[in-house]
Specification:
The chain is built from 7 helices and 10 strands. It is an alpha+beta fold. A hairpin with a 3-residue loop joins strand 1 and strand 2.
């Protein structure tokens, strides 16, 4: 890597300085930001650098613009306190906090060939069909997470016929007799959203997603029931991590 690649550009400098002013309370929600010309002069930069910096802050949801007036500091979105576990349903966690919540199934069918191959291997079920269920989690009337389950069909042979009743997969598991569940091999990572994820979550490309993945096992049989992948909007959750036995 060349030394030049580590040089901080004027655009990055302006974006970082304005963001710091907001984080430190120098600029508060509703306050008007300095103009592009003022920022360019302050940091000895071109106006286009200041404009690009402010556009990025808009895409991050930190500021908003009013045509012909200027840009202002956004009210921070309310963050949902959320304990990351693999064996309590999302709906139960929201009910415990009294938070308005809805779940919408956006896909319920067999996974495509590529996903079949991948998740058969991960679930240790080489000769088994994998059924995919994707749900959009809506909290306080705002789309906030995409919850994807890759489920072994051999353990749930009627899942295709039951696909209209999969708003809560854990409820479905319990109705099938799997009541003692445990989470295993949990991972947490971050990524930027794809175009489809941006559309579903109503966010811009600069809002990072936290990606939680885990396997769900039945405690009694030690069967691996599903592989879970959840994509959370990072600006809408305050995550807690907890050990599980």
């Amino acid at each position: 890597m060349s030394l030049d690649s580590n040089v901080i550009t004027k655009e990055t400098l302006i974006r970082s300085k304005v963001h710091e002013m907001i984080l430190h309370g120098v600029l508060c929600p509703g306050d008007k930001l300095p103009s592009e010309n003022e920022l360019a002069e302050l940091y000895n930069a071109k106006r286009i650098d200041a404009r690009n910096a402010l556009v990025q802050l808009e895409k991050m949801g930190i500021v908003y613009g009013r045509q012909g007036v200027g840009r202002f500091v956004n009210e921070p979105l309310p963050a949902v306190e959320f304990l990351i576990t693999g064996t309590t349903s999302f709906s139960e966690k929201m009910k415990e906090q009294g938070i308005p919540y809805k779940s919408r199934v956006i896909y319920a069918d067999y996974a495509d060939d590529k996903e079949q191959a991948k998740y058969r291997g991960l679930l240790g079920a080489d000769d088994v069909k994998i059924f995919k269920v994707s749900r959009l989690r809506i909290v306080n009337e705002m789309p906030c997470a995409i919850h994807i389950s890759y489920i072994r069909e051999d353990l749930f042979p009627h899942i295709y016929e039951d696909k209209e009743n999969l708003t809560s997969v854990y409820t479905y598991f319990k109705a099938a007799g799997y009541e003692q569940l445990r989470s295993k091999d949990r991972t947490l990572s971050a990524q930027f959203p794809t175009l489809e994820e941006m559309k579903l979550l109503q966010c811009s490309e600069l809002v990072p997603l936290l990606v939680f993945e885990t396997d769900t096992y039945d405690k009694e049989t030690n069967d691996c029931l599903e592989r879970v992948k959840i994509l959370y909007r990072s600006d809408l959750f305050k995550h807690q991590l907890s050990d599980e036995n």
